[in-house]
Design a protein that fits this description.
The complex is a heterodimer. Chain A is of the alpha+beta class. Chain A is built from 5 helices and 6 strands, in the order ααββββαααββ. The longest helix of chain B has 20 residues, at 283-302. Chain B has helices at 16-23, 39-45, 55-66, 100-111, 129-133, 145-158, 208-213, 218-233, 244-260, 268-275, 283-302, 355-364, 388-394; strands at 47-51, 71-75, 116-120, 137-141, 170-176, 179-185, 315-319, 325-329, 345-349, 374-377, 381-383, 413-417, 426-432. Chain B contains 13 helices and 13 strands. Helix content of chain B is 33%, strand content 16%. Chain B has 3 domains: 46-200 and 281-329, Rossmann fold, CATH 3.40.50.720; 208-275, Arc Repressor Mutant, subunit A (Orthogonal Bundle), CATH 1.10.10; 345-402 and 424-432, Ubiquitin-like 2 activating enzyme e1b. Chain:  B, domain 3 (Structural Genomics Hypothetical 15.5 Kd Protein In mrcA-pckA Intergenic Region, Chain A, Roll). Classes of the chains: A alpha+beta, B alpha/beta. At the A-B interface, α1, α2 and β1 of A face α6, α7, α8, α11 and β10 of B. The complex binds zinc ion (ZN). Zinc ion is lined by residues 192, 194-195, 334, 337, 339-341 of chain B.
């Protein structure tokens, strides 16, 4: 057998490692939990966002509220559920909008088209990046990446009309045969 | 040693060439540690664990048995499916439905006399540290990243500075189509699976908006049916990927959509493949990777040649996509790795303390010096400085005693983060001691 232990002891001598002992069958903090904890303690929510933890001991699921203070969605209050798997940060968090809203990048079921939530997710990204991305969707809805095609077409062809439809939808009215949820206070 | 070895009459030369390697130093042997008179005996006494008895596992078990390991355990929770038979060559049609671990163990024991293979038909998570402690080497042939991360974290956590046997080399093989990798991890010494997570980029997902508006490939239509149409129509309360009725529903939805966009190629089996995320398994890739893994196991066990893993290269990637290509390199350990970069350090705490006193103490402890620490235990959020709502919810804990009211015990781990140290998080193991 290779002399692994003596290799380890030599490495420690070289690094002058301080006591990094582990062991025992005690309650261990998992990698995903620790990473989420770190991400949460670095969040910068500003004045337009808030979180809510239904169970504070479960930091892997929470709700994020966004109240845009500029742009077409100003004055609305939108909420997203965040569900983080034990495989985080290898997998992106699962994020869904809780209200039925009129937005080219969010469909009527609440699915969100944000590249870093799917194809461009990388383990080096953090929750703050996701939150910034969501906030950006309300400032700059994007017609070239549509999830709600009707809304995208509307935004592309008639920006002023789209703005009016957003206001109608936000106050609980109907747009193109769909009734939306009231999200204004 | 070779001269005195008696071979069974039925297979007189099976071990002859192996013993030439085991008994005599070769050009790469480190002669200061190699003792040819004991290698065979050492290998016969040691226990080696194989995780997974699928495509890679079948190859690994056969190779290890033929490399002179006599005491092998195998763990796999799966049963044999008919679709396994084209590459998992230890299984026959009559074995369909039986435990992979049990059938594989029996088959290899039958063919290689003198080998004992103990099957475990369960999840790796069902076994505790005492179970894993009995092995000298662990070889993984898994297809799931979750399971790899779990065994990696377990082996890293098991390393006890006082106990030489607690450090188990982990040899990990993985394949995906024509690509594969073999790597060796010396837990706590070298870059671990968690450090190397970025090497497994999840398969590029298709942007949701492409699915919704401009599908170009049959896979896009299937993903659309799976991700979007299912949720809109909810034909069954919960999608069961193994239920043919559910797959048929998705297949028909996808087919209609494909016709709408003039896309051909949506079939039932492709639907099943996309939904269950199946990557075609190539038997030859499994053989190449399993051989590389077992070669490393043999080198570690015998000391006949330097192994992958220490001190330089630890990762061999293989690609058979375009002729044959391998590249071997050193993946560096990550200082901020949440599993190995930051092993729990002992933290001496007064059993009378409240959480608030613990929080304050972090500012002055030389090993921490944290001004705004947030603290969590395994299943309990003790105190978070931010976000504001969580701070408010956990603030009442500051008044509570660590022992009793907050339920912390000797040896429990706590995770401590501080925005001032964005790249590191700390793990501490509590040790209660009266001040
Ligand atoms: Zn690591």
């Amino acid at each position: 057998m290779l002399k692994i232990w003596s290799m380890k002891k030599e490495q420690q001598k070289a690094e002058n490692a301080e006591g990094t002992a582990a062991g025992g069958k005690k309650k261990k903090v998992t990698a995903a939990q620790l990473r989420v904890q770190k991400d949460l303690s670095e969040l910068s929510l500003g004045t337009t966002m808030k979180t809510e933890f239904p169970d504070p001991d479960d930091i892997l699921s929470f709700i994020l509220y966004i109240e845009p203070d500029e742009g077409m969605y100003r004055g609305g209050r939108f909420s997203f559920t965040f569900n983080i798997t034990p495989n985080f940060p290898h997998e992106p968090p699962k994020v869904q909008c809780r209200e039925k809203i009129y937005h080219p990048n969010i469909d009527l079921e609440g699915k969100v088209c944000l590249n870093i939530l799917r194809e461009d997710w990388k383990p080096v990204l953090n929750l703050n990046a996701v939150i910034v991305g969501l906030q950006f969707l309300f400032l700059e809805p994007n017609a070239s990446d549509p999830l709600n095609k009707d809304a995208a077409e509307d935004l592309r062809s008639n920006r002023e009309g789209f703005k009016r439809n957003v206001r109608t939808a936000m106050s609980g009215g109907s747009v193109k045969g769909q009734t939306f949820e009231r999200v204004t206070k | 040693m070779a001269a005195g070895t008696v071979y069974p009459a039925s297979e007189p030369t099976r071990w002859k060439y192996l013993d030439r390697i085991r008994t005599r130093p070769g050009p790469y042997t480190d002669e200061s540690t190699f003792d040819g008179s004991v290698v065979a005996e050492t290998m016969e006494k040691m226990s080696i664990l194989v995780i997974g008895a699928g495509g890679l596992g079948c190859e690994i078990l056969k190779n290890l048995a033929l490399s002179g390991f006599k005491n092998i355990h195998v763990i796999d929770m799966d049963t044999i499916d008919i679709s396994n038979l084209n590459r998992q060559f230890l299984f026959r049609q009559s074995d369909v439905g039986k435990s992979k671990a049990e059938v594989a163990a029996k088959f290899v024991m039958n063919r290689v006399k003198g080998v004992t293979i103990t099957p475990h038909n369960c999840k790796i998570q069902d076994k505790d540290e005492d179970f894993y402690m009995q092995f000298q080497i662990v070889v993984c042939g898994l297809d799931s990243i979750e399971a790899r991360r779990w065994i990696n974290a377990t082996l890293v956590n098991m390393v006890d500075e006082e106990m030489e046997d607690s450090l188990k080399p982990l040899i990990d093989g993985g394949t995906e189509g024509f690509k594969g990798q073999a790597r060796v991890i010396y837990p706590t010494m070298t870059s671990c699976i968690e450090c190397q997570l970025d090497m497994h980029a999840p398969r590029a997902a298709v942007p949701l908006c492409t699915l919704a508006s401009i599908p170009r490939q049959p896979e896009h239509c299937i993903e659309w049916a799976h991700v979007i149409a299912w949720d809109q129509e909810k034909p069954f309360p919960q999608l069961d990927k193994d239920d043919p009725e559910h797959i048929t529903w998705l297949y028909q939805k996808a087919l209609l959509r494909a016709q709408e966009f003039n896309i051909s190629g949506v079939t039932y089996s492709l639907t099943q493949g996309v939904v269950k995320n199946i990557i075609p398994a190539i038997a030859a890739t499994n053989s190449v990777i399993a051989a590389a893994c077992c070669n490393e196991a043999f080198k570690i066990a015998s000391g006949c040649a330097p192994s992958l893993g220490w001190p330089e290269n630890n990762y061999m990637m293989y690609s058979g996509n375009d002729s044959i290509y391998t590249y071997t390199f050193k993946h560096e350990r990550k200082e901020d790795c949440p599993v190995c970069g930051n092993l729990a350090r002992e933290l001496i705490v007064d059993p009378e303390w409240t959480l608030g006193e613990l929080v304050e103490s972090f500012a002055t402890r030389p090993e921490a010096q944290l001004k705004k620490p947030s603290i969590r235990a395994e299943k309990k959020t003790l105190y978070m400085q931010s976000p504001a709502s969580l701070e408010e919810q956990t603030r009442p804990n500051l008044e509570k005693k660590l022992v009793g009211e907050l339920g912390l015990g000797e040896g429990d781990e706590i995770g401590v983060t501080d925005p001032a140290f964005a790249t590191v998080s700390f793990k501490f193991r509590l040790k209660f001691q009266k001040a």
